[in-house]
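Trying the structure run again after the queue cleared.
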Amino acid sequence: IDNVLVHGEEIVIISRENKQFSDWYKERNVIVKTCGTGIRSQMPIIFNWVSLNRKLRKEIGKHDVLHVQYVDIFLLLRCMGIISLAQEVIYTYWGSDLLRTSKLEHNMVYPFLNKASKIVLMTKAMQGKFNEAYSNKFSGKTMVLDFGNPGYDSIRKYAAEMSKTECKKYWGIETEKIVV
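Done. C-alpha cells:
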C-alpha cells in the first residue's frame, strides 16, 4: 500500500470488518469499505446485492486499485459492481479462502480472477495449490507475499541460538514473566 500511495493513487479495500487496522488505513488515507461477512448460511437475496452495488458504486466511483483481501465468492458477488470500476484488481488469498473451498466455489470465482492484475498467495505451497486448482491459467498473475509472518523467522533464529532466559534478557523482559 505504501508503494502505491507514493504515486498518489486512490485505493479501495474490500474486507471483512477489521477495526484492528482502521487507524493504520486512516493515517494513509486508504478508503476501507466492508461488504458483508461472506457467511454462507446467511446468503442475501439478489435484490440486496443490487442495492449494495448501487450504493458502493455511487460512494466510491471509479478507482485505480481494488484489493480484495479475502477471496470469497459471496463477497465478490456482493461487490461485483465496484470490481468492474477498478483499473486494477488485486486478490489476496490468506489460506482458508483457497484451501477449504470446493471445486464449485473455485469455478464461481474463476470469472473474477480473469480481471485480476495480481493474485497474492501466502506461501509457495499455496501458490502450487492455486495453480493446480486453476490449471496454471493464472500462474503469470500470481506472486507469493507472506503478510505478517516475517517476525517468526527472527523468533525461530533466537529460539535456536539462546535459552529462554537469555532471550528474555536480550529483549529486556523480566525473567519471571511469561511471554506469549
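The radius of gyration is 20 Å. Worth checking whether this holds up in the mutant runs.
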